[in-house]
């Protein structure tokens, strides 16, 4: 694993959360283009992020909505 | 309480409509925080009671969703401070743990591209395991993971909502995600999901 890989890995979370500056993003994206193992590693984390969202999609019960609507005249 | 949460502008005062539209978001997060529907409902109800009571403190042009989450996470922290047992953390301060599932997939000779819909690590089959893994995270880490992954708040917004530093947001997020990977892998294996070797 190269120094470039380590640099990219340090930015894993900020990359998947779209928190990097444009310049930092470019550095990571360029590395992922040329390093298949890092691309896979990042893809797994992106899928984990999506997994949380995908499996937490319950909607509020109608009783709760009604209660909230009744709070203001 | 930090009520002046700035962020993406809803460009509005706290009218009934722009507060009510966040009820599903508050409820799905409350479910993972309280771990049961009755308590989640109570928490969201109390959040709106407070939001309407202090509606005049909400500042025009600030983010209604972030404001509601500030109220809810404060209520949650005060109410459940003692109830939620601290689950001992596994070895999650090591950044190499960021790749726990990747390394295990590779070691098992499995594809690491989790892209196909039939993939059990992404598909519907994993639902009880992901919920269980999430709900077992220590509350401070769980709150950050939910605010970032589920509600898609920026780190800066999460810092304001929870009144913590951005560095703390990041360390809780990293720990939460690492623990989530380890738990998810273990529960998926216990459930005998086919993408996960035993």
Description:
The complex is a heterodimer of chains A (73) and B (198). Chain A has 73 residues and is an all-alpha fold. The model of chain A has no long low-confidence stretch (mean pLDDT 93). In chain A, α1 packs across α3 and α3 packs across α4. Chain B is mostly helical and 198 residues long. Chain B has nine helices and no strands. In chain B, α4 crosses α8, α7 crosses α9 and α8 packs across α9. The longest helix of chain B is centred in the last third of the chain and has 25 residues. The N terminus of chain B is likely disordered. Classes of the chains: A mainly alpha (73), B mainly alpha (198).
Topology:
The complex is a heterodimer of chains A (73) and B (198).
Chain A: H1 3-10, H2 12-16, H3 22-34, H4 36-54, H5 62-69
Helix pairs in contact in A: 1-3, 3-4
Chain B: H1 16-20, H2 23-34, H3 37-53, H4 64-80, H5 100-107, H6 127-136, H7 139-150, H8 155-162, H9 166-190
Q: Strand portion of chain A, in percent?
A: under 5%
Given the C-alpha coordinates, what overall shape of chain B results?
A: elongated
Q: Provide the residue-averaged pLDDT of chain B.
A: 82
Q: How many H/I helices of chain A?
A: 5
- Envelope shape of chain A: elongated
Portion in helices of chain A: over 70%
* N-C termini distance of chain B: 48 Å
Percent strand of chain B: under 5%
Largest sheet of chain A, in brief, is: none
**Greatest interface and its residue counts?**
A-B, 35 and 48 residues
Number of strands of chain A: 0
| Overall pLDDT confidence of chain A | 93
Q: Which structural category fits the helices and strands of chain A?
A: mainly alpha
By DSSP (H or I, 4+ residues per run), the number of helices of chain B equals 9
Oligomer: heterodimer
Q: Unreliable runs of chain B, pLDDT <50, ≥5 residues? A: 1-12
The helix-strand sequence of chain B is HHHHHHHHH
Radius of gyration of chain A: 20 Å
The poorly predicted ranges of chain A are none
């Amino acid at each position: 694993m190269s120094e470039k890989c380590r640099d990219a890995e340090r930015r894993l979370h900020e990359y998947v959360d779209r928190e990097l500056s444009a310049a930092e993003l470019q550095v990571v994206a360029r590395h992922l283009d040329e390093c298949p193992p890092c691309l896979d590693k990042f893809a797994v984390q992106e899928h984990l992020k999506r997994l949380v969202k995908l499996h937490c999609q319950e909607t509020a019960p109608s009783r709760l909505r009604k209660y909230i609507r009744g709070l203001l005249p | 309480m930090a009520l002046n949460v700035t962020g993406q502008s809803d460009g509005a005062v706290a009218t009934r409509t722009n507060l009510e539209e966040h009820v599903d978001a508050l409820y799905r997060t409350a479910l993972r925080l309280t771990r049961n529907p009755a308590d989640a409902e109570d928490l969201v109800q109390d959040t709106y009671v407070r939001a309407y009571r202090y509606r005049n403190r909400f500042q025009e042009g600030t983010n209604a969703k972030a404001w509601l989450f500030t109220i809810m996470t404060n209520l949650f922290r005060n109410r459940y401070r003692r109830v939620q047992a601290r689950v001992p953390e596994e070895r999650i301060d090591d950044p190499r743990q960021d790749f726990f599932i990747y390394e295990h997939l590779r070691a098992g000779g499995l594809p690491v591209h989790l892209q196909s819909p039939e993939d059990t690590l992404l598909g519907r089959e994993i639902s009880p395991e992901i919920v269980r893994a999430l709900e077992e995270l220590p509350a401070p880490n769980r709150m950050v993971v939910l605010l970032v992954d589920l509600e898609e708040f920026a780190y800066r917004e999460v810092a304001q909502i929870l009144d913590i530093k951005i560095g703390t947001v990041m360390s809780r997020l990293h720990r939460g995600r690492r623990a989530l990977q380890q738990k998810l892998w273990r529960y998926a294996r216990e459930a005998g999901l086919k993408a996960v070797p035993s």
